[in-house]
Specification:
By secondary structure, this protein is of the alpha/beta class. It has 15 helices and 5 strands. The longest helix is centred in the last third of the chain and has 22 residues, at about 250-270.
Length: about 325
């Protein structure tokens, strides 16, 4: 098997601008190849990502994913092999690291990891789970979920990189979201002008608080299958101002007290102020949050989407 001169892994983690960067990489794959950087990607994923639609990057899910990715490359000999997939952060990375090292012995590996402040991260992950049709529980459930601890995972991930002798670069998305492409191009040692921007300004648009609550209600009665509503709203409605899921002040204060120790541990491990505690006020539920306010455009898109789905089901029956 021909070997690349180096391997470059962009691993996310979740809700750190990964979809945007993957759209940029898909649209820029030819320009990158000209600069001796191979970003192997299937034609279908290239088309999706280049349109601003979400993908899982260029590493397929499932078995033999690395081999299936390399099948999309003509020849990686002497090239830089670029791989983007946030599941590399979520999976048991030490096993994956050993697999990469055994396949490409002696090839240096550099890793780019974006992290995010804990409260902001758990809020964004919660909203994504609702948007995907997988969650109907309140935001307080996410605050109390012990699995929402990406600081401990980042430390474990870093330890795996050290063990495998991978060079790790870490940035905090919460404070550098407006410089994502600059940071990425610096990591690749390529001019920012190399990259082609996706046709949409926001990739994987988040739901605003009203849309989120409507989708959450849909998930109670039509889990997973009801995600078509959020998908359509995300695709057709313009980007919204950032809105936060809401929880009680007590739940938020309890969460921040618990996460404070993990922030200290994370910053001590990485040797810098990487993570910060956030102001809980934008997340505190107030009386005004008992009302859901929709714009005329939101209402029209929702009703049109539901009417189309009902019409389709009526015809099929």
């Amino acid at each position: 098997m021909s070997q690349p001169k180096e391997i470059l892994l962009h691993v996310g983690h979740g809700k750190t601008g990964t979809s945007f960067l993957q759209s940029v990489l898909a649209a820029s794959s030819d320009a990158l190849h000209f600069r001796q950087i191979c970003y192997p990607i299937s034609s279908s994923d290239r088309e999706r990502a280049a349109k601003g639609l979400t993908t899982s990057g260029n590493l397929p899910n499932g078995e033999n994913s690395w081999d299936r990715m390399l099948m999309q490359a003509n020849d990686i000999a002497g090239m830089s092999l670029l791989v983007s997939n946030e599941s590399l952060f979520q999976r048991l990375f030490d096993t994956i690291a050993e697999d990469i090292s055994s396949r490409h012995p002696g090839v240096p590996v550099s890793v780019l990891l974006f992290v995010r402040n804990p409260l902001e991260n758990v809020a964004a992950s919660y909203s994504q789970a609702v948007k995907s049709g997988n969650l109907a529980l309140s935001f307080e459930y996410a605050l109390n979920n012990p699995h929402n601890d990406n600081i401990s995972r980042a430390i474990k991930f870093s330890e795996a990189c050290k063990k495998a002798n991978f060079k790790l670069t870490v940035h905090n998305y919460s404070h550098e979201r407006n410089r994502l492409l600059t940071l990425f191009s610096d990591w690749l040692c390529q001019p920012e002008s190399t990259f082609v921007l996706p046709p949409v300004r926001v990739v994987n648009r988040s739901l605003d608080i009203a849309e989120l609550e409507i989708q959450r209600a849909m998930n109670k009665y039509l889990p997973v299958d009801g995600a078509f509503l959020a998908q359509t709203m995300s695709a057709r409605l313009p980007p919204t101002a950032s809105s936060k899921p809401k929880a009680s002040r007590v739940a938020l204060e309890t969460y921040c007290e618990e996460i404070g120790e993990r922030i200290k541990q994370g910053n001590a491990y990485f040797g810098r102020e990487l993570y910060y505690k956030e102001d809980i006020e934008p997340y505190v539920e107030g009386p005004q949050d008992q009302q859901i306010c929709l714009s005329r455009e939101q209402l029209d898109v929702m009703m049109e989407t539901l009417a189309a789905r009902i019409r389709m089901l009526s015809r099929s029956s």
